[in-house]
Design brief:
Layout: H1 5-27, H2 29-74
């Protein structure tokens, strides 16, 4: 199925209109609040992910120490 030039242009125009809607939404006063919430949500997710990563590393360190102790006790 071939797409006509008009069809491609109309799809692009629809995409641009959708993008402009969100751009205008984020540049209004209420949009600033929405953007701020999204940014804080993203930073909270990053902090949580970093915390999980640190917890996983510390847990693996504890396991490694336990294995070393067992090895040292056996010799």
């Amino acid at each position: 199925m071939e797409l006509s030039v008009w069809h491609v242009m109309s799809v692009n125009n629809a995409n641009i209109k959708a993008l402009l809607f969100f751009f205008n939404l984020f540049n209004t006063h209420s949009g600033c609040k929405v953007r701020k919430k999204l940014v804080t949500l993203r930073s909270k997710r990053r902090k949580n992910a970093l915390g999980r990563k640190i917890l996983n590393v510390s847990a693996s360190d504890e396991r490694l120490k336990a294995v070393k102790k067992v090895i040292l006790l056996n010799f």
